[in-house]
UniProtKB/TrEMBL annotation:
GO terms for biological process: L-histidine biosynthetic process. It is found in: Cytoplasm. Its EC number is 2.4.2.17. GO terms for cellular component: cytoplasm. Belongs to the ATP phosphoribosyltransferase family. Pathway: Amino-acid biosynthesis; L-histidine biosynthesis; L-histidine from 5-phospho-alpha-D-ribose 1-diphosphate: step 1/9. It comes from Rhodotorula diobovata. It catalyses: 1-(5-phospho-beta-D-ribosyl)-ATP + diphosphate = 5-phospho-alpha-D-ribose 1-diphosphate + ATP. This is ATP phosphoribosyltransferase. GO terms for molecular function: ATP binding; ATP phosphoribosyltransferase activity; magnesium ion binding. The keyword ATP-binding applies. Keywords: Amino-acid biosynthesis, ATP-binding, Cytoplasm, Glycosyltransferase, Histidine biosynthesis, Nucleotide-binding, Transferase.
C-alpha cells in the first residue's frame, strides 16, 4: 500500500498546504483561483492534483518550513512567523506574500501588575509556543541587562494566553491579530517581536527542470489571485482638461488607459486602484469633476 502510494507521488512536484487552522480556508481559495484541481478524501493528507503533475501535501503550518527546507516538498504555504521560528535561513526562499494570516508576535503581560517593560521580564518566566524566537529575543535582552540572570523560556503548545492567570508565567510571547484573545485574558502587549503574514516559500534545493517550470506557473497563478484581491478596476469619465489631475489620483500600475469619447470635451479613464484606497480615490475624482465612476472587482489577473 505504502509503495503504491509513493509510486503515485514519484515525479510529481510537491506543494505543502496547512492541514487546518487559520490559513487553511484561504489556501483552498487560492488553489481554486489558480485552478489546481484535487479531491481531498477524508483524513488523507496527500492528494494528487488532477490537472497538473503535482501533489498537495497537507501538513501542520509549523512543520512546512522544515519540509520545504529539507527538500521533502518543493514549495509550500505557511506563516512568516513559522519560517522564522523554524530557523531555516538559507534553506527556503520567500517567493510571494499572500496578504492574509496577518498578525504580530508580541510580548504580553498582565494589564495590572508590576511588569511594565520587557526589561522587567528579564530573569522572570515567559511561556510561549515560539521557543526559538522568544529565546533569541530574551537571550539578547539578558545579555544587555546588568541583572546577570537568564529569563526562563518555557514551551506550551496552545492557549498560551491562559498561562499568566494560571500562575505559569510572568509574561507570554504569542500571536495577536484583533487583540481579542489577549484582552480577554487580561493581558496587554509591551513589545512586537515580528509581524507576519502567509507566504509562499520554495526550497533552495535545486528541483528538476520540469518541476521548476510547473512551480513557476503555479506561483504566477497564485500571484494573480493575490493581486486580484488587492486591486479593483476604476473606470470614470472626466473632462479632457482635467485628465492630467485625475490620472495623478489614478496613475495605474504601469499607466492609466485614457480613451476618447464621442464628446471631444470628455475622456474615459480606466485604471487599477488599491482596494484599500478606493473610497478616498473616488472622493478625490469626484472633487476633480469626474463622473460615472465605476469600481469593478477583479476575479483574477496577471499583473
Ligand atoms: N489570530 C490570527 N490571525 C491571523 N493569522 C494567524 C492568527 N493565528 C495564527 N495565524 C497565522 O496562522 C499560522 C497558523 O496558525 P494556526 O493557529 O492555524 O496553527 P496552529 O496553532 O498550529 O493550529 P491550531 O490553532 O488549529 O491548533 C500562524 O503561524 C500565523 O502565521
Ligand atoms: O488577536 P486575536 O484575533 O484574538 O488572535 C490571536 C489568537 O489567535 C491564535 O490562536 P488560535 O485561535 O490559533 O488558537 P491556539 O492558541 O489554540 O493556537 C493565537 O495563538 C492567539 O491566541
Ligand atoms: Mg493556533
Amino acid at each position: 500500500m505504502l509503495d503504491l502510494f509513493s509510486e503515485s507521488l514519484a515525479g510529481r512536484a510537491l506543494f505543502a498546504i496547512p492541514k487546518k487552522g487559520r490559513l487553511y480556508e484561504k489556501c483552498l481559495q487560492l488553489l481554486a483561483g489558480a485552478d489546481v484541481q484535487f479531491t481531498r478524501s477524508n483524513r488523507l493528507d496527500v492528494c494528487l492534483v488532477r490537472n497538473h503533475n503535482m501533489a498537495l501535501v497537507f501538513l501542520p503550518a509549523a512543520d512546512i518550513p522544515r519540509f520545504v527546507g529539507e527538500g521533502n516538498v518543493h514549495f509550500g504555504i505557511t506563516g512568516q512567523d513559522m519560517v522564522a521560528e523554524a530557523d531555516v535561513n538559507g534553506l527556503v526562499s520567500e517567493v510571494l506574500q499572500l496578504e492574509f494570516g496577518k498578525c504580530k508576535l508580541q510580548v504580553q503581560v498582565p494589564q495590572s501588575g508590576d511588569i511594565k517593560t520587557v526589561d522587567d521580564l528579564v530573569g522572570r518566566k515567559v511561556v510561549t509556543s515560539f521557543e526559538v524566537l522568544a529565546g533569541r529575543y530574551f537571550g539578547e535582552l539578558d545579555q544587555k541587562s546588568d541583572k546577570g540572570v537568564k529569563t526562563k523560556i518555557e514551551y506550551i503548545g496552545g492557549s498560551v494566553e491562559a498561562a499568566c492567570a494560571l500562575g505559569l508565567a510572568d509574561g507570554i510571547v504569542d500571536l495577536v491579530e484583533s487583540g481579542e484573545t489577549m484582552r480577554a485574558a487580561g493581558l496587554h502587549a509591551i513589545e512586537t517581536i515580528l509581524t507576519s503574514q502567509a507566504v509562499l516559500i520554495r526550497s533552495n534545493k535545486p528541483a528538476e527542470p520540469h518541476h521548476d517550470a510547473l512551480i513557476e506557473r503555479i506561483t504566477s497563478r497564485i500571484a494573480g489571485v493575490v493581486a486580484a484581491g488587492k486591486f479593483v478596476l476604476c473606470n470614470y469619465n472626466v473632462p479632457r482638461k482635467m485628465v492630467h489631475e485625475a490620472t495623478k489620483v489614478t496613475p495605474g500600475r504601469r499607466a492609466p488607459t485614457v480613451s476618447p469619447l464621442d464628446d471631444p470635451e470628455w475622456v474615459a479613464v480606466s485604471s487599477m486602484v488599491l482596494k484599500a484606497q478606493v473610497a478616498d480615490v473616488m472622493d478625490r475624482l469626484q472633487e476633480i469633476g469626474a463622473s460615472d465612476i465605476l469600481v469593478i472587482g477583479l476575479q483574477n489577473c496577471r499583473v
